[in-house]
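Internal tracking record. Fields below are filled automatically when a chain is submitted to the structure queue. Please do not edit lines marked as system-generated. If the sequence contains nonstandard residues, flag them in the REMARKS field before resubmitting.
Queue: standard
Priority: normal
Entity type: single polypeptide chain
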Amino acid sequence: MFTGIVQGIAVVEDVTAATGLSTFAIRLPDNSTEGVTIGASVAINGTCLTVTKQTGNTLFFDAMQETLRLTTLGNLAPGQSVNFERAARIGDEIGGHLLSGHIHTTAKVVEILRPENNVTLWFEVPTQWARYIFPKGYIAINGASLTIGEVDGNRFNVHLIPETLRATTFGDIEEGMTVNIEIDSQTQTIVDTLARLGYDRPASPR
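SYSTEM-GENERATED OUTPUT FOLLOWS
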């Protein structure tokens, strides 16, 4: 499990592609790999991956075809930056909300607004996932726990403060980019339960 509090920015050092599998070598900042063991879980842009090898601060991960299909990891290239979070431990402070690291879908950045001292990002998700997105609800974007601002059909926005921009890759985000989305599990359970009871919330196309 993860908390959605991004612990830092890592850099992709190498990507080795094989049939149905890619191996990523990702360098974490100094002092970020203390206590890491083979088999440990680390969220890379919100995707839970398993450490298969370690060389200093560089961790190696394998991503199978299904993971590459459902997430943005298949587009990663050497030199790119990613958000990372090591798995939560019992007793850790939950500053965001509980995440599984299992990506539901991806979203496209459709607009970036830059009022003074903050940034507003607008995203567009596939229509079938809009049913789980509510104003003031939780959502995880590239592994960061964020609060949803406004919702307009299958589009929604989030408001970011300077610290979030500094501590994550959102500081370099651009229109047209694609991000990983993990829907809040409690929201999904409630919506799906109500749907089974006949109180469905139809997905509202833009």
